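Request: Mind sharing a record?
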Amino acid sequence: LVFSFHVGSNCDDGTLFAEAIAHSRRLFDYATALGHKMRLLDIGGGFPGQNMAKFQAIADEVNRSLEKHFPTDSGVDVVAEPGRFYAEKAFTLCCTVIARRTVPANQITKNEADRNSFGYTYSINDGVYGSFNCILCDTGKPMATVLKEGREKLYWTSVCGPTDDSLDLVIAQCRMPMLGEGDVIVFENMGAYTFNSESISKPEMRYVISRNDWFAFLSKFMGNHEATELNSHADNLCAKLFA
């Protein structure tokens, strides 16, 4: 038999895992007293995917608690489900601006001191009913990077999805340069709780690797001479992400 628990998505407090493991020990003992053979503990997921220092702190807390309550000679196997940890950083989402609206800056900042300046509200081609459903259903706080060079001045900005729904808000407030239709906004760490199999319009997917990583990969499996030869033809084998 198995006991499992889940502390909640994107947990940032390792003591929650430790407490749950301690509770599981008591449940194991109770079940064993009733005659059940307890063989497996599933500590679930919820591990952070971006902050490695936080992940390590949680892992240390988990290991200490397991050593205390389920040592290696206890006869109990332990499994975890670190889906976010593996998936979150694996995907980067590129969106394009489909509309721009000039608004008083205080509409964005909610600060009356900004009422005499202006900002921009952008609509992009994806939103909370697509790849950004993590905002509504999880703890998602997308961080945007503008794929545009040579524009220094920053304006108060909000970023919305393609619908007219007031909930379709990707970023409520940030600073960005002025963008135009077709400009690209990049969102990193978008691999967890984003688009799903039932999405009406899924983003087009591309596998991306840097030239250095590509060469390192080839060298590991082919040897340096063969890798150098194949790497010289990389532009013919792989399409550039941006021309």
